User: Fold these one by one.
Assistant:
Number 1:
Amino acid sequence: MKACGNLFVIAAPSGTGKTTLVKSLLAELPNLAVSISHTTRAKRPNEEHGVNYFFIDEPEFRRMIEQGDFLEYATVFGAFYGTSHRWVEETLNQGIDVILEIDWQGMQQIKALVPESISIFILPPSKANLKDRLVKRNQDKPEVIQERLADLQETLSHIDEFDYVVVNDDFTQALGELKLIIQANRLLLRCQGRKYEKLVNDLSKEP
């Protein structure tokens, strides 16, 4: 019998603090891993290949699409992003929960392929706060920041497709809510039933 790991999809407008929250989740919860996506976008100065992303060129990305290497992939702000199918499957089968940091396009693909996946949308407390975060992180040019803010309406139009919503206003509270979501879903019958199958069978025997 294969172990049961949950697949969590976490999406958010750029600059909402999603990556920092996920990093803290990994530090505080056992049996949890985050998928490292492949991307064709340029590497930022503070990023590492194989740590933040697998940075590849477009021909290589298209070759991986043709080979069926991706569980999901999408184009975001002109760059390709994709999730390794093999890595996710192998990790889940080890009983380790997996987090995918992807956008709403990827979430739709994941929900179609893995209906039992759990999707979480993270909101900023306000548009002004989001813009301030994008400016202060000093990673994008002003025109890119404007492009990300302009995309906000399209992103929010898909919020009803998600299972949970968390607002990242107070970081500690947002982190606590994410931990609760993960811990509660670990108690679902589809996983607990496998884990305690022998116990249930023993308890069900005639005296």
Number 2:
Amino acid sequence: MFDAKIFSRWGRADFRGTGKIDLLARSGNVDNPDRNWSPWKPVDISKDGEMGVPPARYAQWKVVLHTGNSRPAVDTVSLNYLPKNVAPEVDDITVQPGVHYQPLPKSIGLNLGTDVSGSSGTRFDSPVPSTHDRDSIGVKWSAHDDNDDQLLYSIYYRGDGNSQWLLLKENLTDKAYSFDASLLPDGGYTIKVVASDAPSHSPGEALTASREGRRFEVDTTQPRIDNLAASVDGGQIHVRFRAEDGFSSIKRAEYSVDAGEWKYIEPVGQISDAKGENYDFRMSPDNSKDPSPEHVVVVRVYDKYDNMGTAKTVIH
């Protein structure tokens, strides 16, 4: 019994042998030939060898050997079939901001083909090499096709609140792709991968399948520091400013005086969890290092995605 794995059309039987031999064939859709299979049908091996059995997943052949002047012998019997095309499947999508995938050499993929029993071969996908790059967004996916067709992929994106998918890249053969994060304005997005088996089929017969990944966020714009002011009050330096970010919350702020080490600053509300935070703090300058009456105060703030904004002021 031959298992085509997929509902298939059965064509010719290629037969090689000698002597008086009858070849018969039948087909069915369950793995038990005694249940609802087609009746045995003679195959005219002296002509075109057309089996003429109904389309089905399984097929079976048998030979009847007749004694005569020469001893009958069977060398080979091969069944030709055309599996019904089924759409590919995209199994999973991973979107990773800060990851850059390296293109794979085209010879890396291994396909072990089909063995003599008719079971499909196993395809091994090599791990995609990646590097950390905070300016990149990496998209990786897994997909398969039950016909073992060659697949092409297209990547689309859609921003929060938008209804239309926009093409990011098409005609990809690798299952990973990276792009510059700055191509997308700050905001939330969803990626969709579309797989097509067009390379293995005639125009008009190709099938596609798609899958959407989980929502992710892009923020490549540094936070802004407004109204930085510093003054000397009672021998201390009094500093005030406001940090603003257009998309994500302010994560932390730091200050440095006269190129000294960076020190953490709490916002006025003590919890840094908003897109805008106010800062108001005092510190004593280290005049032992520099007795000059002039001091340089530098502040820097980070948003949720580690974009940094800086500002400085000079106190006389």
Number 3:
Amino acid sequence: MIIITSIVGSGSYSSKSAHRAYFFGSITFEPWRRLWKSWAPNKCKIFLWLAIRNRCWTADRLAKRGLPHPDKCPLCDQEKETIQHLLASCVVGRQVWFSLFAPLNLSGPVLRQHESSFADWWHRTIKRVKKKDGKGVNSLIILGARKI
């Protein structure tokens, strides 16, 4: 009860407060609603879920396990291959994003050259889009990530 009181603050017990106490301190996945409520196919949603959690079998993960892997990104041959690099900072990946957004007059959300996190970029992009267009843009981002 002491833990729940310090987390919830009200001192009242509920199943919601117990659930929050159980997962206190764990890493949350902020864009889950944007991901699972989109129109994209489930296999694309699952791919992006894994990508944001850095669970895709890119060179960095292969190297950790001692498996054969390319030294550089196979798309740009400039940096080490990580899922964050492929989706956020790779020259080829940024070109894909530009090609997807330009016909929709959404040039603002194009990635910067040294973008650190795909999830952060996604969050900033959705903030710039009108609410009524959000679900479509989310779906476009998920499909674009899968394409890359």
